[in-house]
Specification:
By secondary structure, this protein is an alpha/beta fold. The chain is built from 6 helices and 7 strands. The protein is elongated and about 60 Å long. The two termini are 15 Å apart. Pfam families: Flavodoxin_2 (PF02525). This is FMN dependent NADH:quinone oxidoreductase.
Length: 213
Amino acid sequence: MTKVLVIYAHPETKTYSTTDKFYQQFITAYRTAHPEDEIVEHNVSEYMPFPLDKIAVAIYNKALVNQPLNPDEERFKASRQAWIDEFVSADKYVFANPMYNLFVPTEMNSYLDMVMQIPDTFHYTKEDTMAGALAGKKAIHLQTSGGDYHGTAGGPNMSQLDLGHQYLQAVLHVMGITDFTGVYAEGMDHDPANAPDIMAKAFARAEDAGRNF
């Protein structure tokens, strides 16, 4: 059975959300095309319990000098490791978020900090280069933005400003995931008169991506 891990980052899911509507188009199409797959969903904007904070740094520093952890650090490490193990066990990854200031939301960044973990998802070789542990897996990035950064709404290609997508691609590449694509719903704020048509086309792209992911 294929395991799909969804990392969703948006706090406004109970009211109208373009991000949520976009994601639902994708995941509904995916479920229809792949009914046998297991799908695990996390909204990290609502629950991101193990960030790279002072406890995580203390655990890392103690490991370098082989120093024992205190009980709070042991509990933190075990619980954090469960999230990392879940990430490693997945076959496919879906990242869904709105663009915040040319980047991904803070909580998604914190999640990536958590799972980008030696030796679980990558390691350093004798030549001091990074080698990923998750080769053969695939990922997709579903992102909404008010501006048109990738030209999907008819504007010029300004994808160089989409730092969040670039960062996500770079992090996944380090972990060995090179089968990575982006699907976007964008330009609604830039061209509000045509927003319904823009969203209809974006929904069609999301459905097509869901069927073929």
